[in-house]
Amino acid sequence: MKRKALVIGATGLIGRYVVKLLLQNNEYEKVTILVRKSIGIYHEKLEEVVINFQNLEEYKSFFYVNDVFSCLGTTIKIAKTKEKFREVDYDYTLKAAQIASEVSVQNFLMISSLGANSQSNIFYNKVKGEVERDVLKIKFKGLFIFRPSLLLGDRQQFRFGEKFAEKLSSVMPFLFSGPFIKYRPINAINVAKTMIICATSDLHGTQIIESNKIESMSINYQEN
């Protein structure tokens, strides 16, 4: 039987690629996206639902799918405050995981970050670590947590750190070798590919996948 997917965070860099690849993938017959505003894409397999994420529980009926892809994420610059950042990256992600578990979703796949650590003194890493910690307490047949390094791709917002890392990795690639390979910037489409590989695989249980593993797994993605 063909699969159904729900994508949360479909307007972000990784989320946009996940949606694009799912719509092209013959293993999926339906792709539902929950968004704050329309993304302007029309496809026979796509169902777009504009929602208020503060009331995510009201949209529980859309979680009856095989795979939930949680690509939520923001920055302090966009969120304006630490409280709003935490609301998006922690509250919404955790609530999505809880709802997905309640309806017995087969796989929950979420984007975290390299350096996620609930004990970190860096606010961004700390929040990512806290949401990982609490999602790990929730039961799924398959739980996949992806920790990409700095992302490469066509963002809607300019991020100096990512552009600098992209330039650095092209000029001095040796800096991201050996024990530092997981810090090498990664193309967002490769993250999306690996997420779909994991969703359609026979992998079960909890998988935490670091950036260099995401990169190496992505080469096995097959378009169909």
Characterize the structure shown:
The chain has 224 residues and is an alpha/beta fold. The chain has a single domain (3-157, 187-218), classed as 3-Layer(aba) Sandwich (Rossmann fold), CATH 3.40.50.720. It has seven helices and nine strands. The strands form two sheets. It has a seven-stranded parallel beta sheet with strand order 3-2-1-4-5-6-9, with helices on both faces. It is globular.
Number of extended strands: 9
Radius of gyration: 17 Å
> What is the strand content?
15-25%
CATH topology: Rossmann fold
Arrangement of strands in the largest sheet: 3-2-1-4-5-6-9
Please, what is the CATH homologous superfamily?
NAD(P)-binding Rossmann-like Domain
Named at the architecture level, the CATH assignment is 3-Layer(aba) Sandwich
Mean pLDDT: 90
The portion of residues assigned to helices is: 25-40%
Runs with pLDDT <50, length 5+? none
Which structural category do the helix and sheet elements fall into? Answer: alpha/beta
Q: Can you write the helix and strand succession as a string?
A: EHEEEHHEHEEHEHEH
Distance between the termini: 16 Å
Main sheet specs: 7 strands, parallel
CATH class: Alpha Beta
Number of domains: 1
Please work out how many helical segments DSSP would assign: 7
